[in-house]
Structure formats: structure tokens, C-alpha cells
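SEQUENCE-TO-STRUCTURE ENTRY
===========================
Question of interest: how does this chain fold, as expressed in C-alpha cells?
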Amino acid sequence: MKRFYKTAEAVETPAGWTVTLDERPIRTPAKAVFVTPGRALAAAAAEEWAAQETQVKPAEMPITRAVNTAIDRTAPEHEAVVEIVAAYGGTDLVSYRANAPAALRARQEAAWDPLVSWVEAAHGARLVVTTGVMHALQPEEGQRRLKAAVAAHDAFRLTALYDLAALSGSLVIALAVAARRLEAEEGWRLSRVDESWQEEFWGVDAEAAAMAAKKKRDFKAAALFLDLLEKD
């Protein structure tokens, strides 16, 4: 889409903060009013619009995209999204360890055991840790508690939590980043223990590395989205 506006600004309205293009408020793809809970998020979205040059490229506007998703998709289907995000707890990355080699297993334990302990202490959710790729049935009470933790997030925060869990393969890592138990960079590193091990032994595959870099950008954008929500 060709850039059609000169100015992009964050503006306060009775309903909250919005973004205006040439003093006209923008709307979401579903034609809903684009409103954020606070100024910081709207300002970041306005900066994305202002940074566009001759063409408007939505792929380069993660904050705007996440706000749109929160309003158009997450808010109307909050319970369904909670179910999707909570399901990551049943197959969480940090619950599965390699049978061999021993050095990889040790690296996984060093990275993930503290998170397993944290999620039990923070949310009362005990995770069964297993080896291999066979599915391990997690305790129902722990999964119920994880679902409650997910459900406590409003539409905006749930949108970011979804991205964090989907990109990392771990609800535990997502919750830890959302709670500021982990910085985004560290959360991403902990989600890539297996891949880093493989790269050390087999080398870097250019296509896989490019895909991982994109996922990392999206992961960090989701964490930034949460940070912006907490600034107001």
C-alpha cells in the first residue's frame, strides 16, 4: 500500500489512546476503532506509521499488528485464545529432555530446571519432566493453574503471551518473560538450547538461521509490546 499521509501521531481520546494519520484516527482491519490502553503503546504504533517511506509495509509494524490482533481477534474470542495458549503447557518445551548425549541433557537441565522450579513456585503448577519424544501426561491440577494464569491476562497481554508461547514452544518461558522473570533475549536463548547444540555440531543452515532470526524479532517484539503496556 502506498503511503497516503504526511503525519502520524498518538492522540488521547475519551476511549483511550489512538493513532491519527493527518489528524484522522485509524481503524483496525475489521474496522474497529484503534484504541490502546495507554500512551506508550499508541506512541510506538505511531512511530511505526511515521517510519514508513513510500510504501506502508505491515510486516515492519509489529506493534500496530499486535494491537489490531488484540482488538479484532483476541478480545472477541478471549476464552478460545486462552485455551490455545494454555495448551502449550501440556507439551511444554522445558518438560522434554534428550536421552543422549549426556552433555546435551546437562545443558537442558541447566537451562530449564530453574524454570520448572519457578513455574511451580509462582503458579503452583508442577510439571512432569520426561526424556525422549513420547508425550508425558501433565498433572491436571498443574494444567488448571497454568490455564488460570493465562486467563488472567487481558486481550492485549494475551495477544503477546500467545506469540511468546507459539514462537518459543513454551508456555513457561512465555509466562516468565511476561512476569519479567526473564528478559526477552534470555527467554529466546533458553528456547533454542536444542537448536544451538545442533548448530555447534552440524553447522549453521542458512535457511533455518534466517527463519530463526525472524522468529527472534517477533519474540522480542511481543516482549516489547508487554513492556509498553506497563509504562502507563
